[in-house]
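Hi everyone, sorry if this is the wrong subforum. Our group has a chain we'd like a structural model of before ordering constructs, and none of us has done structure prediction before. Sequence below.
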Amino acid sequence: MIMMAKVEFTVPSVLNKGQGEKKLPLEASDLQEAFNKVSEQMGDDFKRRVFDHNGNPRSLINIYVNGKNMRFSGGITTALKDGDMVYILPAVAGGAELTSDELQRYSRQVMLEEIGFEGMEKLRAAKVCVVGAGGIGNPVVTQLVAMGVGKVRIVDRDVIEVTNLHRQHLYTDEDIGKVKVEVAAERLRKLNAGVEIEPVPTSVTKYTAENIVEGFDIVVDALDSVDARYALNDACIKHNIPLIYAGALGMLGSVTTIIPNKTACLRCLFPALNEEEMPACSTEGVHPSILYLVGGIQVSEAVKIITGQQASLVNKLMYIDLNELSFEKVQIARQDECPTCGTARTINGQQVTAQELIIEELCGRDRGKRTWTITPANPVPVNLTGISKRAETLGYQVRTRGTLGVTATNPGRMSVSFLSSGAATIVGAKNEEDAIEIYNRFVSNA
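Answer:
Right subforum, don't worry. Here is the predicted structure as tokens:
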């Protein structure tokens, strides 16, 4: 007696006259019988495109049972069992064909109606820029790389310190003093070698933001600096790139999705934030769970946009409170007065004159020492070997050295970290003038 199995057969949009992916529940004993029943429902056009004149699947047609190409099993006579998921995918459906290994790796998300085969191909072709490799950026880049996004650029100006480790789980004790994006890229390539990962060790400023985001499909804001967020927002609006914002502090978090010239932008929401007045995790603390929540929502929104769905947080700001375990969405709207996206916009139309160095004071590090970042307005790569030699000449000891940065300390427990982009973080300078003087000592004759 032939046993009939209850299976689900998925037909991609390209074989469904462009009307979207179609899932057909049916009973069949093997693939051949399943195809016969599907062909009866789909009609002659489907048969013509899938089968050759001998009634066999065309060479460009790939058939998968639970993620495994049937050509590696029993072919068209492969027996089916209850619960099997059958997918059919032409090699031309939405771009490059997914390999058998890729389908096996991503099978659990391909099964989702919200992603499917075509969505997975769009993910493999997508380019996402994640700006910030700290508390929010860690879960964001980990999920995007694990899900198989084609290219992920990671941008951050900082080095790893011990206070990061409770929430930034790409890093370990052995990484203290190393450049965040360099370590993150190394870990993520081990997680998924099939994703192109580009680490960019630089600061986000109004002078650098456009070069950072240009050419990417989506930008994820995982920053902790107001000025950098504004610069990123302005660049994304100018280049028409969707931007997904998230912020978190203590037990609270917020997320919104910005679609240029269609939704409220960051300046519509927060028109006059001041860097010096903003609370920081170094003084207020932060719960790791809130970072994973807002980061996961950012990834969900990014995947929706990539796969052609409507993002859920368009013109909505989601507030998350871990104390109450509450999720609230607040309606927001574009403002005509907004200087970036409103009718009276001025920022993108301004001629920006670059100053030589951009200086910003960060939260205190190493038990409250004043900390400064210094970034050239027009970044020029520095010779890290020269910086290391200069550090030794100045009485510093090189603690960590990578391809993208170097960290050195002196007997007075001052720490100087240089990135290959020319940006530096200086811990222990007395004031802004002292920080600039230290910076100039390192770059002269380096």
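For your construct planning: Residues 357-443 form a domain with the TATA-Binding Protein fold (CATH 3.30.310.10). The first helix runs from residue 31 to 42.
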